[in-house]
Amino acid sequence: MSLVKLTSEGEIRVMNRWARPDVYETWLALLRAGAYDRIVEAMNRAIDRMDVVRAQYVVCQSGDEWFPEYDDIWRVLWSDADVALSRKLAGQFVGLILWEVMQQREEDWAFHKVDKTIFGEFDLLEDIEVMEYFRVQDFPRPGRWRNALASQ
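The structure assignment produced for this chain is given below.
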């Protein structure tokens, strides 16, 4: 398996295994027993049917409504005092779990960051970065990244 990044300069960079960020380890420790495994299984079931993956495609039924399999993420990060922050942190947590899931997939995947620009009713500009993964069939093994792919 390889996970490669397509850069805006047209380069391909092989992504090595990551050291989990401290905040991610903290959030994982707050999950109920077995929740992480259930979340990973649900993500993998969804990804099995997809060639293009974004967190929202995996987690959301429609709009802001999440599939029940991901309720444990909400429980860990929910705060009635700051709903907006809770949503933001839950989205980051999902993104980190998805990153780990994508690194462990058997198939070859590439990803890039999608910049979405949304114009609101008051002409406000909001940039949102979204990680988008896509399945790559028969990824080319030769080239300057050959040795890095061979070590995967």
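Interim note for the steering committee: The beta strands are 3-6, 12-14, 52-53, 60-62, 65-66, 109-119, 125-135. Residues 3-150 form one domain.
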